[in-house]
Amino acid sequence: MRYFIYIFAITLLLTSCSEGNVKDSKIMELFANDNIDTDYTTNIAGIKQKKREMLAVADNVGNFWFSDDVDFQMQDPHAYWLMNRMMQMVQLIQTADDGWAWMLAMNESVEKYNSRLGRKIGSVNAATNAIGELIDIYTAGNQPQMNTASYVIAMLAHYKTIYEYYNIIESIYYYGDDNDWDKQLRALCYREYKEWFDLNNAVNGIMTFYTEASSFHSALPMEMNGQFEFWSKKRLEELAIEGDMLYNSYDWTPFKSDAKSISAKKFDSLICYLKDINEKNVVEQKMQQWDEEKDYEFISESIEGMYDYDKIAEMVNLYETAISNWRKVRKQITRLLPKEKRKSYREITKQMHTRLYYDLDELKEIRY
Question: Domain coordinates of the chain in residue numbers?
Answer without folding.
Answer: 2-257
